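input
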Amino acid sequence: MRKLSAEKRAAILTALVEGNSVNATARITGASKITVLRLLADAGTLCAELHDAHVRNLATKRVQVDEVWSFVGCKQRTKERGGKGEGDSWVWAALDADSKLCIDHHVGAREVDDAHAFMGKVAKRLAGRVQLTSDGLSAYWHAVVVAFDCEVDFAMLVKEFQNVYPGAGRYSPPAVIRITKKPRIGKPEEAHISTSFVERQNLTMRMGMRRFTRLTNGFSKRLENHKHAIALHYWHYNFARKHMTIKTMPAVAAGIADRALTMLDLAQMLEAAEAKAGGRLTGYLPAESSK
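output
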């Protein structure tokens, strides 16, 4: 992989963030699968470091949070029956409702500990009091109290869904029959109690990563690669992908970047990071079929 030019690396990374699988990316770019996986690991590591360094002290006013389901290796039910894999994996994401910036994300289960870890990371990136909206997941309640010490205007948007029956349409999302806005802390403005923007970003994630496409065999086989792909996705979403609503990159709208970046910029930053580290940023990934 060290022989790859910055332009070739940028082409591989671009293919990955535009919804191609690892195998398809290898075919399109002429690189081997293990080269693609190694580059993904290094780029994902760098993207996580860049996010941590630059997405700070945000002058955000309204935050929306949500969780996206996926799985690694096998689904949870299969894992409980002895299947090989990590089972269900959830991506918790926080979005600035105005700049559309992804403030932070967390990969884990959909449990109380994960809610605390996620909300703790989000709170540390904000410079002032915000209005926060979540769905009706009960784990948010105590996590928000601890992370923000009640210095937040927090509300839950609780949706009631129609009963889902097995059949030909079982993969379709259930219909929403009732939405209730429930203020929890402070004085959230009712007009801004919404999760629509972060839910739309969830669709962007599913469209931009083959690992999140339903009913295919493109799902992640290893948790490490899953996390690297998510870190790459959010860097690209924040810094390099023009948002069609605000007509610029979320990082530019949020004031943490002065221009749009490109995958070539990321590839060149990766080269500089490797030169400083004296080699690759991650350990060796075995050349196996796991994605």
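quick obs: The longest helix spans residues 33-54.
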